[in-house]
């Protein structure tokens, strides 16, 4: 039992040598969602507090991202989130992609499946209030056809 514990500690210490890259890519205003859509300040504020950590190049890395393997999970989660939608690179999407993104954003605001529960466990302030959801739903509805609002 003692040997197993020692091995676990050694493995844990060894894992700490494999750090994640916490550098965020540069945000270009001409590609940034808020800039190119002229989103109202209240929409920008909601997106930055509830969406940008996983869906932009402005991710904030909290203290626990210094501890492997937690850091690996968080980095993977951010990479996955950015692969679905990156607000910092919105200008790079073609019209078809933007249409699909807006439909997803509208559905997320309408049905409340974002931010993910796993994110909200630690980031309670990112939880969308009823008012926040209404604001986002109204904003995104401008970009979604009526048949997709169902």
TrEMBL record:
InterPro entries named among the record's database cross-references: Haem-bd (IPR025992)
Highest taxon of source: Bacteria
Domain spans labelled Haem-binding: 9-144
Name under which the protein is recorded: Cytochrome C
């Amino acid at each position: 039992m003692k040997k197993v514990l020692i091995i676990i500690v050694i493995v844990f210490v060894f894992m700490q040598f494999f750090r994640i890259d916490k550098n965020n890519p540069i945000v270009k205003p001409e590609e940034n969602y808020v800039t190119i859509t002229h989103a109202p300040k209240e929409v920008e504020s909601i997106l930055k507090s509830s969406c940008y950590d996983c869906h932009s190049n402005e991710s904030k890395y909290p203290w626990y991202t210094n501890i492997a393997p937690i850091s690996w999970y968080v980095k993977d989660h951010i990479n996955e989130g950015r692969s679905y939608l990156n607000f910092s690179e919105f200008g790079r999407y073609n019209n078809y992609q933007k249409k699909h993104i807006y439909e997803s954003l509208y559905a997320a605001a309408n049905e409340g499946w974002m931010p993910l529960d796993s994110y909200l466990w630690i980031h309670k302030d990112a939880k969308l209030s009823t008012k926040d959801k209404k604001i986002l739903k109204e904003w995104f509805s401008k970009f979604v056809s009526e048949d997709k609002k169902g």
